[in-house]
């Protein structure tokens, strides 16, 4: 059984016009920190005759922008609906349909006798935007497959950073705040019991930190927030001896060592390389799994792609998705799974975390072959990183993502400097608020929630992904408003 949640308060979804992203942190942490199985008690899959498995995830995001009629914070999706003649804004309707349609596809397939699986990754920005727009139809569709016991076993939600912040360039003190805020917001929308089942994590842009201290704090925060595993991009990790992964279809143990020699690890499922959205839209993971040899435990082909972006996802995915599940029969030796379901199934078969292949972020072998863990200090690590950069201009500690041709740092000083300053001001404000005499947690105050929200919004990756111009101007506006709030 999952933790008892009946005694927990029913959380308001919106407070003072803002998403409920803070105030009940202790209840959230009590709910997510448990070691009970989540999918195993109800799974209808047995590994006895299974050759291989596959898991697919859909990533959904729309940024929050200061572009309402009077400069209010609105979802970019709302802006698309209100300005259909700009760019590809005519796709607003299809995008909204994509955010909702799993709530129809899963029940349809289950009622037809199929055994589908899907993992969902929705940013906090998007969930709030749907609330702001009054899109109860979309949220109700999602609640149906999340909370209805008939359909819940076929769907797994993945946690993420609330504001779609790429982890390597997010101020370290804010990493855990993003993780916790998403859990908080999710519980407010879908309930405590649903939150207790969220055990996998999807980093925005598949961006994995490779700086030793950032990675360590990221994994530490994930584990403190009850996560058991995360999805990582194949080319963003290496073996402990600095080579590419050889067994990418088996679970790995992502090892992090910080500049003081401390180590921590978490399970990683490997997202294979390729054109992500096209591969998911055409259900390539299923067909790749069919081509694999039999392993013990059965291999898993993991893939994630944007759930709404591009014609292939909008138009080809529905038929390909349904066709694949109709092909899989009770006698098939390849089945679909969710990440947590797969890990619980192989654990029940005797394959535990100690058996997982160790790996680390790409580039770290070059550091640790020069710095002995017992001699590690912040100075020795930073000096080694500086030496490596001098020897090889291609070496960097910005992390790796599924958009490796784009730097999330270079050329964006006009966003990063204000972002770091606002974060610093936010943490100064926290200290002030925490010292006030009050009868309830200071994180439940509107002042805190509003300051936290602006801090998150400025860290949204879109303000760098979309280049200089309108998007950096949005960032400037958010920074100025946030600074005034602080």
Automatic annotation (TrEMBL):
CDD domains tied to this protein: GH57N_like_1
GO molecular function ontology, one term from the record: hydrolase activity
Highest rank taxon of the organism: Bacteria
SUPFAM superfamilies: Glycoside hydrolase/deacetylase
Keyword field: Hydrolase
Gene Ontology biological process terms in this record: carbohydrate metabolic process
Gene3D superfamilies (alphabetical): 3.20.110.20
Alphabetized PANTHER family for the sequence: ALPHA-AMYLASE-RELATED-RELATED, SLR1535 PROTEIN
Name of protein: Glycosyl hydrolase family 57
Lineage: Bacteria, Bacillati, Cyanobacteriota, Cyanophyceae, Nostocales
């Amino acid at each position: 059984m999952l933790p008892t949640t009946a005694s927990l308060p029913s959380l308001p979804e919106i407070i003072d016009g803002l998403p409920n992203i803070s105030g009940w942190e202790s209840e959230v942490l009590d709910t997510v920190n448990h070691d009970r199985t989540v999918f195993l008690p109800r799974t209808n899959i047995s590994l006895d005759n299974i050759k291989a498995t596959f898991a697919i995830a859909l990533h959904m995001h729309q940024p929050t922008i200061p572009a309402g009629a009077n400069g209010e914070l609105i979802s970019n999706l709302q802006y698309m609906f209100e300005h259909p003649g700009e760019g590809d804004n005519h796709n607003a309707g299809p995008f909204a349909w994509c955010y909702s349609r799993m709530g129809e596809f899963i029940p349809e397939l289950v009622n037809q006798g199929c055994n589908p699986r899907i993992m969902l990754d929705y940013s906090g920005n998007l969930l709030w935007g749907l609330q702001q727009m009054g899109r109860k139809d979309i949220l109700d569709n999602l609640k149906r497959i999340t909370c209805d016991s008939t359909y819940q076993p076929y769907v797994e939600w993945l946690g993420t950073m609330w504001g779609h912040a790429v982890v390597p360039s997010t101020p370290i003190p804010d990493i855990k705040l993003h993780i916790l805020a998403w859990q908080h917001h999710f519980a407010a929308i879908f309930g405590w019991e649903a939150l207790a089942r969220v055990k996998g994590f999807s980093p925005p842009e598949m961006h994995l930190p490779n700086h030793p201290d950032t990675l360590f704090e990221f994994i530490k925060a994930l584990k403190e927030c009850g996560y058991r595993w995360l999805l990582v991009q194949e080319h963003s990790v290496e073996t402990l001896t600095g080579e590419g992964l050889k067994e990418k279809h088996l679970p790995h143990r992502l090892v992090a060592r910080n500049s003081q020699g401390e180590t921590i690890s978490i399970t990683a499922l490997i997202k294979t390389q390729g054109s992500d959205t096209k591969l998911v839209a055409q259900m390539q993971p299923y067909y790749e799994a069919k081509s694999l040899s039999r392993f013990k435990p059965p291999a898993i082909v993991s893939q994630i792609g944007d759930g709404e972006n591009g014609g292939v996802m909008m138009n080809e995915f529905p038929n390909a998705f349904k066709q694949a599940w109709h092909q899989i029969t009770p006698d098939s030796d390849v089945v679909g799974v969710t990440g947590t379901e797969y890990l619980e199934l192989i654990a029940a078969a005797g394959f535990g975390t100690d058996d997982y292949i160790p790996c680390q972020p790409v580039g770290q072998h070059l550091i640790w072959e020069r710095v002995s863990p017992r001699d590690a200090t912040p100075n020795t690590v930073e000096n080694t990183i500086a030496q490596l950069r001098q020897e090889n201009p291609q070496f960097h500690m910005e992390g790796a993502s599924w958009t490796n041709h784009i730097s999330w740092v270079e050329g964006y000083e006009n966003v990063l400097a204000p972002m770091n300053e606002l974060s610093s001001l936010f943490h100064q404000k926290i200290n002030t608020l925490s010292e006030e005499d009050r009868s309830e947690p200071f994180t439940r105050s509107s002042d805190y929630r509003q300051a936290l929200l602006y801090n998150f919004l400025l860290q949204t990756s879109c303000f760098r992904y979309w280049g200089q111009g309108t998007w950096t101007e949005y960032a400037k506006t958010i920074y100025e408003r946030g600074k005034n709030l602080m």
